[in-house]
Amino acid sequence: MASLFTFANPKRFMDASAALLPWLAGATVLTLGTGLVLGFLAPPDYQQGDTVKLMFLHVPAAWTAMMGYGLLALASLFGLVWRHPLSDVAAKAAAPLGAVFTLLGLVTGSLWGKPMWGAWWVWDGRLTSFLLLLFLYLGYIALWNAFEDEVRAARAAAILALVGAVNLPIIEFSVDWWTTLHQGESIFRAGGPKIAGVFLWPLALMGLGYTLLFVTLWTIRIRTEILERRVRSLLLEGAA
Amino acid sequence: MSPFAAVLLRDMRLATRAGGSAALALGFFAAVATLVPLGVGADLKLLARVAAGVLWVAAVLAALLSLDRLFQSDFEDGSLDLIALSPLSLEAVAVAKIAAHWLTTGLPLTLLSPLLGLMFGLPAPAIAMLTLSLLIGTPSVSALGAIGAGLTLAIRRGGLILPLLVLPLLAPAVIFGAGAVQGVLDHLPSGALLLLAAFSIAATLLSPFAAAAAVRLNLAG
């Protein structure tokens, strides 16, 4: 934990992230590039044909969207408990990214659903719970924007994020129970992945690539927010 | 009179006397339920299929409408500051206010629902299940709504943002509540009512803490 709190200092975070960012960006381009090429070269599925390649864009987006909410909730918890301004900034920066990845998951899923299920949208458990996740993200962003005072906004949004985090598994479970057409879990299951290697490797690479992309963009957004706050306080000083 | 009972009774009086919103929520509930057959047609078979979902959604919306009186009006006239200074903890205040909200909104809605269920062509066992599911489920609506009301109490026109915050959290209540009735209609055994009870109990127990934290942060400074 000591190392984590070391970087809770904005100055140290700025220095460390400046050094780390080119590597993160490079790794993102590399893994996403390799994953895309491998995914494109993967053979067509015997049932789904070439549309199976949409999986490499869709599944990692859904993973990243969920991970994004987890990180948002974690940052909110740190912000609430230890009152680190940097955690507040990190939570604020994660929300729009998570919303975009959720939207990406919904859109690619819809494009995949049309040839597979014959409909752009079905009221399936997974789809619906993802739509609700999008609303949670949007509510979080809206609540943040409704406050003028940054500190108060951060704490209100953090409470909402944590309530959402407690509720998310219940929503997910209840909606799945409600009705489902979606494929069950086939990667992270007891007894190992139930998916052929030619599909698993590109999928793993794309998953890593999406995660790296999220982390890279997140770092950039946090840096931007810190710089914006600095500019604002400098302007206030100038005005005073 | 204990402080807890004082807050509870005060909120109930405010809701039921002139200018209160308990009757308005009931009227809203009935009006929404009346508009649905106008929209989907008067086929009683179809209406019976959708009745549970429609009435549950209408009940949730009606309960959300009156959430602003939970904390916001007290915040605006300053009485929330005095309540916060009282020996009663804010968590207990939240419990009292949630209870008052439920007694003046969720409970009347539940009592009205058999009549609307009858008008929607539901058979008697389904009506009984609908009423029971609303009785068990509506406390969670008041409880989770209190979190939203606490978070938005200082926001001007917070009433607009509140449903966006609270509605996604209420998805399980609607699913299990309507699901229990659907199970009766289809003559299938269903654990929905038990799941609804579990959800409602957990929400009612945990929400006061989050609501009190939300109120506290808005009162600070």
Q: What does this protein structure show overall?
A:
The complex is a heterodimer of chains A (240) and B (221). The mean pLDDT of chain A is 83. Chain A is mainly α and 240 residues long. Chain A is 80% helix and 0% strand. Chain A starts with a helix and ends with a helix. The longest helix of chain A has 43 residues. Chain B has 221 residues and is an all-alpha fold. Helix content of chain B is 82%, strand content 0%. Chain B has ten helices and no strands. In chain B, α2 runs parallel beside α6, α3 packs antiparallel against α9 and α6 packs across α10. The interface between A and B is medium-sized, with 25 and 28 residues.
Q: Give the overall silhouette of chain A.
A: globular
First and last CA, distance of chain A: 39 Å
The SSE string of chain B, one letter per element, is: HHHHHHHHHH
- Calculate Rg of chain A over CA atoms: 20 Å
**Averaging pLDDT over every residue of chain A, what do you get?**
83
Largest interface between protein chains, with number of residues from each side: A-B, 25 and 28 residues
Structural class of chain A: mainly alpha
The secondary-structure element order of chain A is HHHHHHH
What best-fitting shape of chain B do the alpha-carbon axes yield? elongated
Strand content of chain B: under 5%
Largest sheet properties of chain A = none
Task: Give the total of beta strands of chain B.
Answer: 0
Helix content of chain A: over 70%
- Beta-strand residue percentage of chain A: under 5%
Mean pLDDT of chain B: 89
The residue ranges of chain B in which pLDDT falls below 50 over 5 or more consecutive positions are none
Poorly predicted runs of chain A are: none
Oligomer: heterodimer
